[in-house]
Structure formats: C-alpha cells, structure tokens
Amino acid sequence: QEKSCHxxxxxxxxxxxxxQDQLYELLKYAALGKCHSAAQPSWCRIYHQSHLAGVVxxxxxxxxxxxxxxxxxxxxxLRKVFRHRFTLAPSANFPVSLYGEGTNLKSQNTPQGLTSTxxxxxxxxxxxxxxxxxxxxxxxxxxxxxxxxTLEEQKKNDYPIEGSPGCKGYISTExxxxxTDSSPLFxxxxxxxxxxxxxxxxxxxxxxxxxxxxxxxxVKPESTVVNYRTRFSGITKKMLLPVxxxxxxxxxxxxxxxxxxxxxxxxxxxxxxxxxxxxxxSVIDTSxxxxxxEGRRFKLKFLAKAVLGKEIQCEQKLGHDPTEDxxxxxxxxQFFIEQGPTKVAELNLEMLLTAEKLAEVSQNKAVLxxxxxxxxxxxxxxxxxxxxxxxxxxxxxxxxTLLLGKEGLDSxxxxxxxPSTSNKQxxxxxxxxxxxxxxxxxxxxLGPEYLAxxxxxxxxxxxxxxxxxxxxxxxxPFEENFCMKSVKKEFGRCGPIxxxxxxxxxxQPYVCIQYEVLEAAxxxxxxxxxxxxxxxxxxxxxxxxxxxxxxxxxxxxxxLDVENEGVIYVAxxxxxxxxxxxxxxxxxxxxLETLFLPKDLQSGKHRNCCFxxxxxxQSAVDALEAINGWTMKGSKLRSRNALAPGHLWRWIWQMNxxxxxxxxxxxxxxxxxxxxxEQDLRKKVKKLDHHIKKLYRSLQNNTLCIVLxxxxxxxxxxxxxxxxxGIKHDEGRSAC
Length: 736
Fold this sequence. Notes:
alpha+beta; Alpha-Beta Plaits; 8-stranded mixed β-sheet; 6-stranded mixed β-sheet; 37% helix; 20% strand; exonuclease; RNA binding; nuclease; Nucleotide-bd_a/b_plait_sf
C-alpha cells in the first residue's frame, strides 16, 4: 500500500512568522529530499517526502496578508482547504529569496566567463576514467547486447516484468531473450493523454533500424479523457473522434510485427511499455544508456542536438512527433553502439549542457517578470551570498520544473514577458502542464490597476478600521456614579483590554471597550449582554456601521475556518500564572497538543488569556464544556471557540498600534472614492479563488501545495505576506 505523505507544523502563536530563508528551506527539502544537503525544515516536518507526487507553489503577485483578510469571505476555497497558515516576512526581492540567490552569473554571462568555464570542464573531462559512461561500460567498443537492460535493471527502473503484481493482464510480445549483437533494433515511442484511468496511449509509432516508419497510429483510450496535453502530445479531441483503433488492436499488431529477437529502443521506454500494457524482454533505454551521475538523465531533445546535430520537439510544432522521437532514440543507440563509450564520453555532454544553460540564462534576463515589474531575477549584479540557486538544484536532479506567470515559457523553462496573458490562460496552461512537472510555480495577478499604492493604502485603512470596530464593544447604560473598576474587572475576565473610555454624549453613561483579541470582544457580547454589571442591567453591542453589517457572517466563517478546528480560547487567567503552570493545570484535558500564551509585544508580559489546540475536534468541544465555569487559582475562567488563527495575533496587535488615526470624515471621504474599485476587486478576488480551487482539484494526491501572498517591503512601506500550505489527499482537503 502506497504511503501517504503528511505535514506537521506547530504554527500556533507568535512563532508563526516565517522568514524567506525558512520558506526556501521547506521548498528545497520538499522537492529534493536528502539530495544536495536538503534537510527537514526547522519549523515544520514532511513525513514520507519520497512519496510526494510533486510540489506546486501558487504566488499571488504583489498581494499581502492584508488582501486575504480584507477579502476573507471571497477567499472561500483558500480558507476552507489549507490547514496550515503562517505570516510571511516581507522581502524586497521575493523571487531571489524564493529560488535562492544562485551562483555569480555575471562572469559566466560574459564570453570570457564562458570560455573559462568550458575550459575547466574540458580539463576535468580529459580524465575519462571519472566519466559515468566509462565507469558503467568501460572504454572498449561492444556489441548491442552489452547495452540492453538486465532483468534487475528493468525492475529498478519500473519496466513491466512477467509475473509482477502490477502487470496483471499485460500482453507479452512473446519475443525471447535469445538476442545477439546482430538482432534487429526497433525505435518505439508513444504519446499519452490523461484519462480517468490515468495515462493512456493515444498515439504509437514504431520505426525499423533504417528509420522507416512501420507504425504511426492514433488510439482511442478506454476511459474519458481528462486532459489531452495537446502542447506535448499533439493530440486534440477532434483528432480522436473518428478513431476506432483500441489498445488491444495495437498490442496485436506489435506482436505480429516484432521478430522473436527484436530489441526495442526508446527514451524512458518503461513509460511507453507501461502505457501499452506490454512486456518485452530486450530493451535499450537511451535515457540510461547515456549515463550521468547521481541518477540524473539527459533529455531526448538535448541528446538529439548534442550527439546527432538534430533539432526535435521544436516549439513551432503542436506537440511532440512520436515517429521523430522514436527515430531519434534509435539513432542515438546506433551511434553509441557504433562509436563506443570512449567516443561518447569525449563529447563532454555535461559541459555542453552547462554551456547551453548559461547561454539561455544570458539571453533571458528575467525570470517570472509579469508586466515589466515585480518577479525579476537581477542577473546584472552579483549576489551577496553564494547559496545554490533552487532551480539549478532541481535541474541537476533531472526534475522537470514549470514556471508560469503573465508570460510565456521558452524551451529552457525560463519565462519571457507577455503582458496580454490573463489569469484564465495561465490556469488553462497550468492544468495541462502541472501534472507533467515535479515542481511548479504558478503566478496569478490582479493586475496593476488593482495594486496601485493609493488603493493599497485605502485597503489597509479599511481593514484597520473594521478590525478596530470588531474589537470594540459598547456596554451600558450605567448609573451616573457607577464603579469603573467593577466594569473593568468584569469585562477584563473576557480577555486583555487595550482601552476603556466613558461615553458621555448619551443621556446615561456608556462604556466603550476595545479588546486586543477578537475572541475577547465576542465573548463579552455573548456572556455579558443582559447581565448585571456595576449595579445595572446592561446591553453589550458592537458599533453599528455600514462596514459592520456583515460582522455576524464574518464571525461565523472565522469559527468554521479550517485552521481553527480543535482550537479554543480561554480567558480569565491570572497574569502571575506561567506557561508551565498552565500546562500542569490543563494536563487533565484529553488530546491537548499545544498551548499558546500571548504576550504584549512591547512589554513582553503575558496576557490574561491563552489558546489551546487539541488533536481532535471532539476533544476541543469536550474541553469547552469542562473549562467554562472552572476556577483556577481563585479566578473564574471563560472560554469559546477560537476566531483568529494563531499567526494572526501578532498582525492584529500591529494593526491596533499602527498610525492610522485619521479623522472619520476624512476616512469615509477616501473610501467613497475607492468603493467602485473595490467592488470590481471583490469580483476579481472571487474569480481568483475559483481559479486556485480548480487548479487544486486537478492535483494528484500527495502533492504539496503552497499558496503565497508575498507581501511587500519597499520605500512605500512594509506589508507582511501570508502563506497557506497542505498536502492534498483523497478527501480534497489538505492533510495535516
């Protein structure tokens, strides 16, 4: 049974702010595992990393934590799916911090730099004894039987084997293993589409030793096609409509066409045979024949150009041509057999690949550069550090990477600017390409008209104002000479108070109380409305403003937020209690996982409340019933479900203490000017959430998905980012 990956992260509380280096640490380990010195991240843990199907990072260009909570109701999918959320420290150059600073490409981009690099590679390659090809095959020329895969090699590389549990129902070509050095070679290649069943063959090509095409047939898949992968397969819905040929027909034809001692040649031929559901004993796999170190493989496109001098899989063509690919693989095998390992090693393929990559980098100055700004890798200045570039590490392991934004991709995988690309086009491309890639970065953007600085400032003020209103309650009426100390004591039992003032404009006095946490204000409304306080039966309510009309809806959605599952808020604690004291007091509660005791970020003192996270939701429900009415060290406790995820506590504190104290009339005047833009923005955000939902649903199980609001760190000010992450499982929601 396949192991299920899952993610563990203790992100409750103040430690939930993650630096760019920590994010890089996670991405590197998720994609590379223990290769290239990648270690488990210090702040979270991925279990069974080797079983990850892939890593998908969705970047919401120039958006911050501010956008997520301003449009919290519109981000319906994001807040219900991802269990783990963290504040992301803003970065002045987000792409550099995401991918790693890379090597100093400045000198390598110059002709002198390329020459010195190439010379160094030639010098190193002059000692052919170290070449992986020589180490595997020796220096002498041998017959083709020396290059066919052994049974053990076939098993190791996932070839269908007679009698294997996963090959039940597979058809054997009935060829024997009595091959000789004069046995005939046949090139084979298939194109596949993604169906409800998985990868199914939709086109098959077979060529003989002279390169003559013996078979080039379209195949009707058994199951419904989910993704035609037209860009790679060249297959369209229209092409398959008249097709009658089925897989069984192809299997029968191949059995008749192949002589008893046939040797099949292909590039990663195991995938073709698995899709054909056929078993063949004699194979040469050119992805393994041209050996590299550390299990890496050359791509067929590169080998065809470097060894044969042929251009295949050209961007101008719609999809790959299987006959062209089959012929290329066949000719590569023939070249290797005729020339021998030494001649192949002397080609210095590693050096040629390095030179090709450097040439591509020098021609493409920007990586992920949407609409001329933002995502740009500055190659004209040497970076201050020498941390390996994350994308380079991926390429070194032969993993396919995908970078999609408001631009197109060239054959090297680097991006070129194309401002006309819409989010919808990016989504369509992602749905097609992400399943083919081990590591993908997909960037969406609201567009420059929605990210203007004046609009961003307006959003910040709106969020700050609404947050203030949600933290504020009005209580009263009280008698003229009421005891303020009694009021403060009673309302203080609901949580930490930031300010308390008497409202004198009314006939009888009221008290305006602003709390530091949302749970405290909500607890006061729920527990003290209609209660007798300081000798008066009072009403407790929040301010009534246009912005607060949806407050109850927002409170309900916050309670249902997936990150708040199993988390409760407890107030009424004595400030003298330490975290150790509380751990001891609450130790009797079943399945308690984490305790977070908030601090005043200026004084460092503990507040009179805490958050408890339980392993099971039912345990949190039971704890709520048990705690309400508890007396701890002479203080009566109050509790309720958590509203603000752990990472949000610091942000709320910062918003409360920011300099946003404009006059109300000035504030509303500005907001009226922005109302039309914000209405459009709400629609854009809702559509963006739908795009991410569609992309997420298309991901394979055991895919790590991370959604990033990068934030901003510029001369205009700093805005914290936000990260949401989880590993997709069958139930559609990200796993813990």
